[in-house]
Amino acid sequence: MSWKPGRRLLIAASIPVLAAPRAGSAQAWPSQPIRLVVPFAPGGTTDLVARLLAAGLQERLGVSVVVENRAGAGATVGSESVARAAPDGYTLLMSNIASHGISPSVYRGRIRYDAVADFAHIALVISNPTVWVANPRAGIRTLADAVARARSPQGLDVATSGAGSSNHLLVVRMGQIIGKELNHIPFRGAGPAMQAVIAGQVPMMSDSLPSASSHIRQGSVLAVAMAAAQRHPSFPDVPTFREQGFDLASESWFGLSAPAGTPAAIVERLNRETRAFLATDAVRARFAELGGSAGAMSPEEYTEFVRREIAAWAPLVQASGATAD
Amino acid sequence: MDLFANLAHGFAVALTWNNILFCLIGCVIGTAIGVLPGIGPVATISLLLPITFGQPATTAIIMLAGIYYGAQYGGSTTSILLNLPGEVSSVVTTLEGYKMARRGRAGAALAIAAIGSFFAGTVATLLVAASGPLLTQVALSFGPADYFSLMFLGLIISAVLAQGSVVKSIGMVIFGVALGMVGTDVQTGQQRFTFGIPELSDGVGFVSIAMGMFGIAEIIMNLERPESRNVMSGKVGSLMMTREEFRRSVPAVLRGTAVGSVLGILPGGGAALSSFGSYMMERKISKGRHEFGTGAIEGVAGPESANNAASQTSFIPLLTLGIPANAVMALMVGALIIQGIQPGPRMVEAQPDLFWGLIASMWVGNVMLLIINLPMVGMWVKLLSVPYRHMYPSIMIFCAIGVYSLQNNVFDVYQTVFFGIFGYMCSKLRLEAAPMLIGFVLGPMMEEHLRRAMLLSRGNWGVFIERPISAVLLGIAAIALVAMLMPNVRKGKDAALQEGG
């Protein structure tokens, strides 16, 4: 990530100028429909949660909140469109681990937005751990089994939903720790990868908990290890990586952001409404079922969180070789 | 009889007033978006998803499923009337369907598309109900090597699609494969041939190519030749099928249903291959094969049946494994999850209302679509008598709106313009678009499966002949290739083609 102080200064300086003429309209905000850009194709976890959030915000703000899917290039196409939109509180983005954590390193130098400075980050919406699952007949019940398989001449195949995802990077990290590269088998999305694991073509998969949770509950795959600091409340029987001797955690996340320069009052209101929505029992129950946890960060905390994530992923992206140079 | 008891239960669910109403709404919306070029079921379903939040899960999924197969029905209409395919499966329908329309047989083509689809839908629905879980095993037994060989076979026989020179069609297949390589490499995440344009990082848009190469190019051609425009509006022809046409369609519909039912089960690519596989089959073995290229009714009846059968059986992996076969299915999983239902093997026991209700509603939806579509045939055909000077600007506008709505991105509209001009040049050079599109669709899938198979076998090529499914498919491909390359056989083919077109 190359920082451009000049540009940041310019943006900082422009905030009052942009905000001033809009002060009147900020009072009346929201008075027209709000666009919520999802930088992924419809159907994924982000898209689903965005639609739930849109419905919740619509009710609380009294105007329609329309989800717009703009997929492409590791979620950077949609994110860039929001970075360039008018900072009037009517264009919002589902910022996420891809567009604001990993892609800045993968598309280094070619990405046309600054994941921190070009956005007013509003709130973390959901975060969920990565889980490693195995085909029940593969003979892998613990990470020790997996490591033994990886070190055997046969090697260990691990499927993921795609190269450069946080699930893939966890496979890379595990390989670095045990000193033996795992045979990464990327698929086009989590669905086909899971099917290959259920069919026994690939013994193991590194997947996000929400997309794996139903298959774990049904017993079609076996949960081997949860990449989280603690055991997950919805899956208390699944031990963590740390419990099995590997100090690894991997959480994917997404949140709500707006273009930089969005008036502070709007950001504050959106943060309040989002957190109130996330705190409802219905949402908590639904998120728990999916295997995610609802966020409760202030705009400042979320901005700091994004900044830390970018720094944390950069060396791993380098190691994985998944850069789009 | 368990099956009948279950189906009866399903019909009891599907035939409540509320569910009938939502099934009808789904079918009508589906037909409408199918007819509007470019606006696909994915965009529509994602837009309508919030409406279903307030409904029970069964009702929601019945409506979404209605949109899905309604769009399949509607999509054939524009392919036949305007040479405008919106999806992979309708590309094949344009080949004979549009030719039929130009001969004044648009009514017959539309009618057989609807009737064939209905028959195929009925058979496939029964198949899903009777042996869904069993068929899941078929889908699971297909590994990467087998998929590769299936796609390879498809690509080899796609040269048969050529209506002119075989060399030119092979060239177009290869060009299509090359176009398919544009975008992010699945294995490494590297950008390939994107020239630094972020919009290309997910590849060239299929709908843009299809609209441009078929629809827009055809408009330019028609504008160039005033006489061909008048031919269109002059000959509306009789709406009904002749007895001869009906008799010829029956075996094509049966074969198409079989091909579609089997291929639809395979997630990713199966459904795309079905209509095209059926077209090949009809072209080789149907009684009317000499008419292919000039508007043979078998070339509409077979692929349309195959396509609808596949869209029903593609529910099998979703219902039995909880794994979506395509983007529309992924949205349905989303809709179910929002409703708090986890799709998967336990759904049959845990949600019998949903499972059997959905299956019954598939059939109810097919009946509705037949009722909606057959009387509309007359209206659609009348559309052809609209003066071309009014017609073509509206087609272009709808295309632009449809293409834009895919990603909400103007870049896709530019792509369509580019491929429209390119398609026009190809027509002038007698290069055919269909083999190129097949190459574009199959090429990247083939590459993906090849590389995955090689990763899993640690670089051992033997895997393609060690696996029985793969070995059989490659064997058929080899025979097809030899037959095509043997000079005397080829001469025979060329002669047959000259006779036909």
UniProtKB/TrEMBL annotation, chain B:
One Pfam family recorded for the sequence: TctA
The keyword Membrane appears for this protein: yes
InterPro entries attached to this UniProt entry: DUF112_TM
Keywords: Membrane, Transmembrane, Transmembrane helix
Keyword Mitochondrion assigned: no
Domain DUF112 residue range list: 20-437
TM annotation in the entry: 12-35, 47-71, 108-130, 150-182, 203-223, 258-279, 318-342, 354-374, 386-406, 418-443, 464-486
PANTHER family, per database record: TRICARBOXYLIC TRANSPORT PROTEIN
Protein name: TctA family transporter
Organism for this UniProt entry: Neoroseomonas alkaliterrae
